[in-house]
Specification:
about 290 residues; alpha/beta; eleven-stranded mixed sheet; 9 helices; 11 strands; elongated
Length: about 290
């Protein structure tokens, strides 16, 4: 199912917004959409009275309701749906193994968003093997973004480190027929970080900022060739990567960032840049894992 978009729903307005965005994306890219709902029978202690069959029917109803809404709005959509009998995080991570992209919902943005993103979403984004798109909700539909807005992508490191992130961003921009803004933020190294070797490299380019611009152009070059129809704006700016990206994405319709895949004793991490934009970006955010 690698050429399938997968969206997780739970009956909330936020997950309905995610399903609607995923359906639009699937139609735009001519891909099938698989809607999943995680449900696991977990009986509570007395005096709470539960009925397994009733709870199972509710899980099925959640799925049927979303399926009906999407079929009505997008009759051309190739749609399948499934109840996954597992806990939410493990169910979504399992679904992500077979997905091209996983889509989840997020509530609002602002001071409370760190809480509203929820531990489920953060765990899924930090551990999924495929890109995960977090979609904000406005009355059960995706929050409004400029229809002709750019796709903004954060680029860092070298060519190989950027490959998957830029691939996702260029594919998204090409499917939408909009420009892509590739952003590389940089900060001067601390005094103890300077070395004769690093200064020699910077001097070859006439300073640190020209070096950063050259590094961005080198990463973009193969994608400019592969997607000649996509207008590219190269954006290099000194400052915190999170702040620079959020400012650049003010009028964007999609923001794409990377997440380095690495083992950690305390569990998966989404990284400081992804964390910042997920919590404060008004537009959908795609987090793409990379080596």
């Amino acid at each position: 199912m690698k050429h399938t978009l997968v969206v997780g729903v739970d009956g909330s307005p936020q997950s309905r917004a995610a399903a609607d965005w995923a359906a639009q994306e699937a139609v735009r890219r001519d891909l099938p959409l698989h809607v999943v709902h995680a449900w696991l029978w977990q009986p509570l202690a007395a005096p709470v009275v539960q009925d397994r069959d009733t709870e199972a029917r509710r899980a099925d109803d959640v799925l049927k309701e979303v399926e009906g809404e999407l079929t009505h709005r997008y009759p051309e959509l190739d749609l399948t749906a499934e109840v996954l009998r597992d806990a939410p995080v493990s169910a979504l991570l399992h679904a992500a193994k077979e997905a091209e992209t996983l889509v989840i919902g997020t509530r609002g943005h602002g001071a409370l968003v760190a809480f509203l993103l929820g531990s489920y979403g953060q765990q899924v984004i930090g551990a999924a093997e495929c890109p995960v798109v977090s979609v904000r909700s406005a009355n059960g539909r995706p929050a409004a973004v400029p229809v002709e807005g750019e796709v903004v992508v954060g680029q860092q490191g070298g060519v190989q480190e950027s490959t998957e992130v830029l691939r996702f961003a260029f594919e998204a921009a090409a499917a939408r027929g909009v420009p892509i803004r590739a952003v590389r933020a940089w900060t001067p190294p601390p005094v103890y970080g300077y070395s004769p070797g690093s200064m020699w490299i910077a001097d070859q380019f006439g300073g640190l900022e020209p070096y950063e611009k050259a590094a961005l152009e080198q990463a973009l070059e193969p994608w400019r060739v592969k997607y000649p129809q996509v207008e590219v704006v190269a954006h290099v700016e000194q400052g915190s990567a999170g702040h620079v990206l959020l400012a650049a994405a003010t009028d964007a319709q999609l923001l794409v960032v990377g997440r380095r895949v690495r083992d950690s004793a305390v569990g998966p991490h989404i990284g400081s840049v992804a964390h910042a934009v997920l919590h404060h970006s008004a537009c959908p955010v795609a987090v793409v894992p990379h080596p």
